[in-house]
Amino acid sequence: MSEMNADSRKTRLNRTPEWLALGKHREALGQTHLRELFETNPGRGADYTLRVGDLYIDYSKHLVTDETLALLRELAAATGVAELRDAMFRGEKINTTEDRAVLHTALRAPRDAVVEVDGENVVPAVHAVLDKMAAFSEQVRSGKWTGFTGKRIKNVVNIGIGGSDLGPAMAYEALRAFTDRGLTLRFVSNVDGADLHEALRGLDPAETLFIIASKTFTTIETITNATSARTWLLAGLGGDDAAVARHFVALSTNAEKVEEFGIDPANMFGFWDWVGGRYSFDSAIGLSLMIAIGPDAFREMLDGFHTVDEHFRTAPPERNAPLLMGMLGVWYGGFFDAHSHAVLPYSHYLSRFTAYLQQLDMESNGKSVDRDGNPVDWHTGPVVWGTPGTNGQHAYYQLLHQGTRMIPADFIGFARPVAELEPELEAQHDLLMANFFAQTQALAFGKTEEEVRAEGVAEALVPHKTFRGNHPTTTILADELTPAVLGQLVALYEHKVFVQGAVWNIDSFDQWGVELGKVLAKQVEPALIDGSRTEDLDPSTRELVSTYRKLRGR
Ligand code: F6P
Predict the structure, then answer these.
(1) What is the pTM of this model?
(2) First to last CA, the chain
(3) What is the ipTM of this complex?
(4) CA separation for the pair 411, 406 (Å, rounded)
């Protein structure tokens, strides 16, 4: 980072003049309602919009004025967001606690781009892996790659967890309409044996390919499931170890561990330590997806990512969508005490999108010490949640509309459903989208007491039927959910998360918080099995373990 930026970091975020100015501005804004903001500036519905690639982003229904936006940009400038962004794109080791570069953007760089890590251009290696993935995917899709008994592969089971599962699983759902429907894809992540059990039901081992996805290849859940999958395969194919080579491939950065597990390194697709797990599904981790949608569609998706990378890198702050979306989150978290953020896709195909974003956002920005290890005294990442919108409308939207909390929300919708829908199902799309537009309207503008009374509602019911409104939302609209649009959406959120981490001065690229649970699980397991080492447990856990053992008849 530049000297200037390092200096500005010496001032605590919430003592900077820019933060204090936003605080004053927030006070002045008081209870200003979105209705007033639209009355003052009816043009904001068109003015407060952006186009990025194929995405149309409307941020007019936010509690912001031109002044708010200018102050937020000043905060972004003072906290060095642009400098950190440039350092990331240059391959500098901005993940300081792990001493690593953060270069998921290199995964979608064009073949002729140059991105250096420690003086070496990594782009040729990225494309070499993509080419190897493409060749393998084509072999599986065409039936050239056969199982041990010579049968064609019909089932692909991805075994991985966290970033080695959520991305490909989400994208497979999102792009189902683009997949080879002759292939069955399943994703196994949970160490609960039920997950693998259900995934393997009805599958013929002779037709099944396992993709073991693990950056470290040491993750206990994945290695345990992979071992069980190998046992299942060998039991089904007569016990010859040679079968493993035709039915197991690995996606990893750890060739040694892959070999130790018994997978031929020739069947390994590599990536690098500068790809964070939750930023990895456009690396080799996306192999299952590439098999499903084919290499061309996968490359279209990468181009979509790259479009938004370029936008984030070069667009001026006033027109920079990830910057804007990130700063809006900083605004609500810092000055409206908003604790959560809903992402509500109006597409059945995006049913796993928010679950994917939960890891992306919460594992990145769920931190409470700054880059220098000092406790932060401002809120960092929000709780991210949500499911496809229309289902949510009949479940938790009540709280969005009339609850006491502020919950900013992103609404994601498409002008056209996927091409393959039957005409009568295609016709349902307008109803879906009518809900999409109606919800953000109701959330923003609500319904006043006067409007309720004018409908002749009994006085006692007026408070119950009044909608305060003033709930901020972003609307993201695209023509159709294509591979390119999916790439654009994911990159948009990746960079939004980046912006927030930069402002909050936290390391968005480590995840030390998941380690303690892993270590403790190793201590608890022997206590469950043979009752040993219970003296190491705290009194509550010891009691729970003892009850568990009794229930298990031990
Ligand atoms: O949950 C912690 C974590 O380290 C994630 O960051 C990561 O995506 C996941 O585990 C899986 O790790 P691996 O790909 O190394 O198996």
Answers:
(1) 0.96
(2) 58
(3) 0.98
(4) 16
